[in-house]
Structures are given as structure tokens and as C-alpha cells.
Structure prediction request, 128 residues.
Amino acid sequence: MPSRDIDLDVTVEPSTEAGVLYRLLDPAFGLFAWAIHFLVVYVATAVACVVGAGSASPGIRSTVTTALVAVTLLAAATVIWHAVRTWRRPGQVLDRRFLIRVTVGLDALGAVAILWQLFPLLLVPPCR
Prediction:
């Protein structure tokens, strides 16, 4: 049987070492970071209240709040770093550029959601 070579003008994304799972979950990094941050902040607040931070001195309560704010800012910085790193990736293939934009958009949404959690941390005492 003669072989036919068909020349199609198709751009194929080069194979990467990243697995399929990574490529599927990478766009949702910001949302995963938000969920993990949400869990960490509220579990840490609950543990602090159980061990007596609510009845402790104002300095201890301030330390708890400062630690939670630091965790929040670190989580937001991590998501922003991921968005910047993703934006700088080359995206010659049309589908890849779309995925980059979706990833950066979801990272922006996650960063806003993480930073939005600063309001209850700063306005409401940790243990009430």
C-alpha cells in the first residue's frame, strides 16, 4: 500500500514534561490557593480561640491577627506570582494563549478573594 504524506498547516504544541493532571489543574491554581487559605485561616482562628487567645492580653490577640494577615498576604503574593509566571510563558498556539488568559483570570479572581478575607480579619476580633 502506498503511503500518503498529507501536509497540513497545523501547529502542534511541543510535548512538555508536565503531566496531564498538572495541565488540567494549573488553571485553577488561584482557586485552590483560595480554598486552602480559607481553611488555614479559619482553622488557625478556631485553634487560637480554643487555646485561649480570646481571653488573653491585647498583645496576644494582636499577634494572632498579625499572623493571619501575614498568611493572607503570603497566599495572595503566591497567586500573583503564579499569574505573572503564567503570563510570561510563550503562547504561540491559539489554544495555549486562551489557556494562559483563563489561568491568569482565575488567578486574579483567587487573589481578590484571598485579599477580600482581610476585611473580617481586621474588622472582627479573632475570638468573640
